[in-house]
Amino acid sequence: MDRSPFILILSLVVNIPANAKWTQNGVTIAGGHGQWNANNQLNWPYDLFVDDDQTAVIADYGNHRIMQWKKGDTTNGQVVVGGKGTGNGLHQLNFPTDVLLDKETDSLLIFDWGNRRVLRWPRRSGTTQGEILIDKIACWGLAMNEQRYLYVSDIQKHEVRRYQFEGIVVAGGQHAGYALTQLYHPEGIFVDTLGTVYVADSWNHRVMRWTQGDKKQGTVIAGGNGQGEGANQFHYPVGFSFDRQGNLYVADLYNHRVQRFSIE
Fold first, then answer.
1. In the chain, what percentage of residues exceed pLDDT 90?
2. What does the UniProt keyword field contain (predicted)?
3. Structure confidence at residue 11 (pLDDT)
4. How far apart are CA 132 and CA 69, in angstroms?
5. CA-CA distance, 201 to 244, in Å (whole number)?
6. Would you say residue 8 has pLDDT above 50?
7. Going by C-beta distance under 8 Å and a sequence separation of 6 or more, which residues neighbour residue 4?
8. Do 261 and 22 meet the contact criterion of CB atoms below 8 Å apart?
9. How far apart are CA 223 and CA 208, in angstroms?
10. pTM of whole model > 0.85?
11. Is residue 65 over pLDDT 70?
12. Where are the domains of the chain?
């Protein structure tokens, strides 16, 4: 079995203009009904991806499950993986932090943080358990571009590194802080076809963008207005995704919601 981390491919290719801007007030498309385990609730949503039909698939960390929300249905989501209590069985999850779609196999790739493993879960009907692809691994946010560079967020060094044969710093690396040259506990990451790196700068309550070749300073594309529950604020954003139109979706952890920011 191939246990290389390079199986983790981006679920879709998005072309986002380098100067793109997004509306600064988000719209809740999942959760927002308090913190618990009902199908209309989330409990620390950590990351998500948005499929071609704008279905949002969310790592519901505190409920040990992966949830799916169809476009336009903000009332209830659907449990697609886990939700059977915390544990290390192949039918269980233990604090999942990341989820991607592998279109070649039509499978979900899940980073199962508490079990230190990456699971592959086929989306075909009747699937009852996942398959371990990588185990004994303690990385956090992952992304991959078309050239198969692997991007990893390091929450101890407060930086994002790109790997081929050795890592180079492409964002942050100036110690923890709130300046535009710094990151503070970066988690979710995304790399578009232009090589632009997007980072969930969690403890600064913002989403940042670093254009290719500019390692010195990033720009804030959403949030950065202090910690809060306003439409233009986050309380610990940990993961995000884009749809094919370039709209931004952010997992707002302690507000227990997913916010959508429309591209202008």
1. 54
2. Glycoprotein, Repeat, Signal
3. 42
4. 25
5. 23
6. no
7. none
8. yes
9. 9
10. no
11. yes
12. 45-164, 186-261
Tell me which architecture the domain covering 186-261 has in CATH. Beta Barrel (2.40)
Place of tokens 């991959």: 144
Confidence tier at 7 by pLDDT (50, 70, 90): very low
Are the C-beta atoms of residues 57 and 108 closer than 8 Å to each other?
Answer: yes
User: What tens digit of pLDDT does each residue of 166-203 get?
Assistant: 457 888 888 899 999 999 999 898 988 888 999 999 99
Report the C-alpha gap between 7 and 29 in whole angstroms.
30
- The Cα–Cα gap between 227 and 109 comes to 31
Tell me if the domain spanning 45-164 has CATH number 2.40.260.10: no
| Residue listed under structure tokens 């199962």 | 112
Give me the torsion for CA of 31, 36, 39, 41, rounded to 10°.
0
